[in-house]
């Protein structure tokens, strides 16, 4: 294989998005379609928004299908996602669903906190394992998991959401180790605060990024076969420092 074609061929021709209305996922899909991707499956709860997302990607030149998927219904994951893999090989699965929750409400109402945990962690574990098993059966493919810097260390302002992402991040790292040498590549993406509809009501944090910037980082990570990607890259150093601060000092920071 020629050296100049290898990076291009590391990008997927077919893509399955778990969380088909995610702004980050759609930005990533658009970028990959512009490079090499020709077939996309958008998995999510049936809705006008999901159909609009599919139509948008068709406008970029891809063959796009929608798939019913509910993170809170793990019993349906194997059957629902299995239909996609039974149809053809999938080069990349992008796990992009999740909810922020509302910290103040979630602290007062445990059922709301549990919903955050079940969506962001339990549902993701189920979907990731189903996808990983199918990718391993193919003998190739990438599983890209959208984590968050919020999972690096619990913050008073969003520790419920952050703890769910911490669990997902640790799980994805372990899954990557388990799949090493099988032909399946697992990549964990850790964005900082992403400016999007989901975060529109929140005050922006330092190192704020965009869905398009995350998409660019995902593409670069795929080309490099990276295992961990930070967006922006500066956060790798920042979070390393914050992670090792004494707890009493960390608690006093305006986070």
UniProtKB/TrEMBL annotation:
<dbReference type="InterPro" id="IPR020904">
    <property type="entry name" value="Sc_DH/Rdtase_CS"/>
</dbReference>
<protein>
    <submittedName>
        <fullName>Decaprenylphospho-beta-D-erythro-pentofuranosid-2 -ulose 2-reductase</fullName>
    </submittedName>
</protein>
<comment type="similarity">
    <text>Belongs to the short-chain dehydrogenases/reductases (SDR) family.</text>
</comment>
<dbReference type="Pfam" id="PF00106">
    <property type="entry name" value="adh_short"/>
</dbReference>
<dbReference type="InterPro" id="IPR002347">
    <property type="entry name" value="SDR_fam"/>
</dbReference>
<keyword id="KW-0560">Oxidoreductase</keyword>
<dbReference type="InterPro" id="IPR036291">
    <property type="entry name" value="NAD(P)-bd_dom_sf"/>
</dbReference>
């Amino acid at each position: 294989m020629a050296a100049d074609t290898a990076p291009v061929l590391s990008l997927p021709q077919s893509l399955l998005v778990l969380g088909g209305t995610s702004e980050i996922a759609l930005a990533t899909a658009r970028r990959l379609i512009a490079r090499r991707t020709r077939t996309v499956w958008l998995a999510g709860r049936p809705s006008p928004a999901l159909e609009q997302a599919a139509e948008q990607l068709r406008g970029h030149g891809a063959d796009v299908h929608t798939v019913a998927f509910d993170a809170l219904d793990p019993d349906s994951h194997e059957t629902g996602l299995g239909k996609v893999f039974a149809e053809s090989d999938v080069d990349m699965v992008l796990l992009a669903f999740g909810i922020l929750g509302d910290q103040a409400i979630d602290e007062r109402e445990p059922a709301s906190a549990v919903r955050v945990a079940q969506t962001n962690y339990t549902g993701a574990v189920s979907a990731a394992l189903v996808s990983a098993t199918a990718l391993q059966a193919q003998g190739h493919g990438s599983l890209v998991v959208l984590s968050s810097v919020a999972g690096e260390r619990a913050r008073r302002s969003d520790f419920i959401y952050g703890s769910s992402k911490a669990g997902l991040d640790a799980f994805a790292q372990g899954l990557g180790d388990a799949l090493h040498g099988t032909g399946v590549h697992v990549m964990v993406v850790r964005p900082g605060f992403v400016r999007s509809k989901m975060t529109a009501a929140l005050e922006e944090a330092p190192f704020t990024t965009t869905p398009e910037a995350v998409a660019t980082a995902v593409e670069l990570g795929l080309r490099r076969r990276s295992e961990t990607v930070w967006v922006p890259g500066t956060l790798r150093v920042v979070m390393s420092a914050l992670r090792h601060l004494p707890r009493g000092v960390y608690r006093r920071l305006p986070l």
